[in-house]
Amino acid sequence: MWQELIVALIVAGAAVHFSTKYLPMAWRRRIVYTLGKRGFNEMKLAKFFKTNGGGGCGSGCSSCGPSTTASSCDSKSATPKQRVIKLHVQR
Q1: What is the pLDDT of residues 2-49, one digit of tens each?
Q2: Which of 10, 16, 62, 73 is deepest in the core (most CB within 10 A)?
Q3: How far apart are CA 22 and CA 9, in angstroms?
């Protein structure tokens, strides 16, 4: 009985960790929105799921910090970060 309860808690914790780190941003925003409509605090959920409420460090703004808001970022001067994956083909 106790072993099954402990395993269930470990699996639930792993699922929460997976959902906060590896789910796509759109899914995480949808989870925050849905739980926010159910009465949970959206700001805490957005911080927990690392969605930043649409602005902030993930929006392409050059300055990140707690005082940065979406309105303070100029979309013309901000350049989104691009990742390049270099492939080395060996023949």
Answers
A1: 999 999 999 999 998 998 888 899 999 999 999 999 998 889 988 888
A2: 73
A3: 20
| Exposure of 2 in the CB half-sphere (CA atoms within 13 A) | 0
Domain ranges within the chain, ordered by starting residue: 2-58
Stated pTM of the model: 0.49
Cα–Cα dist 43/55, whole Å: 12
